[in-house]
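Batch manifest, entry 17 of 40.
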Amino acid sequence: MEDILDADAPATPRSYAFIQFSTADGVARLVLNRPPANVLSVEVLAEINHALDSLEYQREVKLLVVSAAGKYFSAGFELQDHLGDRAYLMLEEFRKIFEQLGKFDKPTLAVVAGPALGAGSILAAGCDVVLAGASARFGHPEIKGGVFNPVAAALLPRLVGRKKAMEMILGGGLLTAAEAERIGLVSRVLPDDKLEAEAAAFVQRFQEGSAPILQLTRRAVAGGLDLLLPDALRHAEDVYLNQLMATEDAEEGLKAVMAKRKPAWKDK
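Output type: structure tokens
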């Protein structure tokens, strides 16, 4: 697996034990790789946070793709990490992931080809776009073991509404991919044998775009999610007028549309 070095900020190259992480052609790829079920231990969560942190100064990255090796996307937290001092570390590392994703400028895509349970389910759902294979399953069975996921408790009502979130968290049942799509947990469900090709096509569309335009558009949307509508509008307008229109690519894009030609992005 490839070592990653932040191009613009001092960092130490790192070899990961439980994830694969690489950046190439404007795309960062984070693959959960802890067989057989990609269980999220404290150590796995720390590696994810390290990888996300390394992307902060990589301005050329247009998309982060989160996927998994093997039959599971993730079966959730390591059971032993719920006990003693490990519980604090587990929750702290998991919360950091979502804090990083929340302030991220890079759009995020989760590709789910197998069961995504508990922490694995909310990790996928926390991405901007979720593509799932038809045989994927989602859910929060933690209640059956006497616990709950704090990130799911906070984030799920915002994603699927209060009543469906209550049903998922308190009921502990699993959703099919089609059910997850219906409630908005998943963006699109594809036949299992089409998932990889469709994900590749999705990634290519981002590779053909402008890094700053994609990042600033994501900033405009994400930054207004928890604001009242008037404040969200002002936030989006500020990003548009004072940040987007200051880029060379915004001018190039408009000129290309008027000239009926393909934009020549400079990623500036």
